[in-house]
UniProtKB/TrEMBL annotation:
Designated name of the protein: ABC transporter ATP-binding protein
Membrane topology: Multi-pass membrane protein
Organism, scientific name: Dactylosporangium cerinum
PANTHER family in the cross-refs: ATP-BINDING CASSETTE SUB-FAMILY B, ATP-BINDING CASSETTE SUB-FAMILY B MEMBER 6
SUPFAM superfamilies listed in its UniProt record: ABC transporter transmembrane region (SSF90123), P-loop containing nucleoside triphosphate hydrolases (SSF52540)
ABC transporter domain segment(s): 323-557
Taxonomic path: Bacteria, Bacillati, Actinomycetota, Actinomycetes, Micromonosporales
Chief localisation class: membrane
Domain ABC transmembrane type-1: 9-291
Assigned keywords, A-Z: ATP-binding, Membrane, Nucleotide-binding, Transmembrane, Transmembrane helix
Top-level division of the source organism's lineage: Bacteria
Matches recorded under Gene3D superfamilies: ABC transporter type 1, transmembrane domain (1.20.1560.10), P-loop containing nucleotide triphosphate hydrolases (3.40.50.300)
Amino acid sequence: MSGERQGFVVTGGLALLAGAGRVIAPLSVQHAVDADLDPATVVRAVAVGAGAVLVAGTASILLNRRLHDQIGRRLAGMRRAGLRRVHDMAASTADRLPSADLTARLTSDLDQVTTFAQGGGIQFLTNAAQLVIATGIMLAYSWQLAVPVLVLAAAAFAVMLGMQRVIARRYGRARRDLAELQGTVTEAVLGAPVIRSTGTGDRTRAKLDAAVDRARDSLVRTLAPLHTNNALGELAISTMTVTVLLGGVWWALSGDPDRLTAGQVVAMVFLVSFFVRPLQFLVQSLGEAQNALTGWRRALELITTPSAEVHDGVTLPDGPVDVRVEHVSARYGTGPLVLHDVTVCIRPGEHVAVVGRTGSGKSTFAKLLTRRLEPATGAILLNGVPLDRLTDASLAGRVVVVPQDPFLFDDTIGRNITLGLPGATGDDALRVLHDLGLREWFADLPRGLDTPVGLRGERLSVGERQLVALARTALVDPDLVVLDEATSGVDPATDVAVQRALAVLTRGRTTVSIAHRMITAATADRVLVFAAGRLVQSGVHDALVDAPGPYADLVAAAMSR
Ligand SMILES: Nc1ncnc2c1ncn2[C@@H]1O[C@H](COP(=O)(O)OP(=O)(O)OP(=O)(O)O)[C@@H](O)[C@H]1O
């Protein structure tokens, strides 16, 4: 037997023991009653009953421990795998991927599974076992009394199930209203300065009040079916008890030789409640079980989404990188094409500046080069190898992106610079800062390399964050740099430092700069001009600026600012 199957058998066995232990009590009572409460039989019955309770309790504890342990381990594994997938997706896609949403969804899905499995799930198992055993004993005692009980139970089950669906629907509505309330509160808190400065406090308060009222109303609406269901359970128990009692007594009086003994009638009455309570519980927790199952399925779906990482591809051939873009067009998701039929070659060591109006497709072009977006048509080749066949491992450190606002980890400047190169030391960081002409900037730092940058680098300005990212990039010594120039928040002194560092970094290295300032375009080897998703001009600054066309217009617009 495989380990997993053996595990199921042990779990099932423990659940049966726990369920059976509870059902022994009515049997003991029956023996005691049928022996006319003979002291010896009563003592024996009590001893058996006590033993059964002990066995049921122990089985329950063992089952609890076992399930807690196994479920905990399995869910932790799923959480790890799921978060890894979210991280991979965030690193390898340019779509506006709601990674935070995915993480929140995974967390709540798995929490749902945990809550059910560790709480209701264990009870679900023992109650199911109890239901099966109680049914078996009732049928063994008297099918004549058991059948009406089962018919009544089936009817009660059907009604309770229908009611449960209503409850689930109303709970769903309540959950949506609560989420909306949460969203409204978050918006009001985050937008507080805007709300105050625009004098729209009253409107916000009214919106908040309405959201609170909606959430309260929909929560209240769940109560009526909930109470009805509980009442239905009680009604079912009473009806069945009366049926068994009246039926048993009437039968006893009929003088039928097969009639039940007094003890058996009493035991049947007990069994009815041992039968209906679990039924009620099962119906009530069916919704939770369904939610848990949906959560489990959604988490699995996320975990098994194929990874975009390339492990078994080709290694990027050594040396400076040449880039060939052949008839490439691109789109986001299922949206329209935002880049059309772009063809361009970038020589090894060439510094190309990409310019164009906002929305013209510059960043999309950069994302394509760094494999954060797949071309819809056409191909991109690095050193003659299609980009989608290059392994992630061979691209790491050789193709590097410097975003507009680089991400820094909550650590020191030194460690943020050295993190890309395993084994790099503070001396390496100092050397690279020196090479990039950043010693002066560095000298002004309060604690040198040990200066903490804060969460996401918030203690540094955008320009300074770019300086750290440029130093990090220079230390890794990549063959292709794709740089998105910062558009704002860079003071003149830092700007000079950035330009100086850039000049060193791009020297002899294939570089694609998304240039937001004309100075960057003017100092690049070549300028690519994009307009409405098309590459409309390509050439050196001096030649383009003198010819009438989009580039000359852009330069003129920049000068008139
Ligand atoms: N993640 C995305 N999902 C959907 N559409 C996008 C996404 N990113 C960009 N776009 C769309 O693609 C087009 C090109 O955008 P892109 O960001 O490449 O332009 P850009 O020239 O870099 O602009 P900017 O200078 O403002 O950054 C635009 O119409 C934009 O709305």
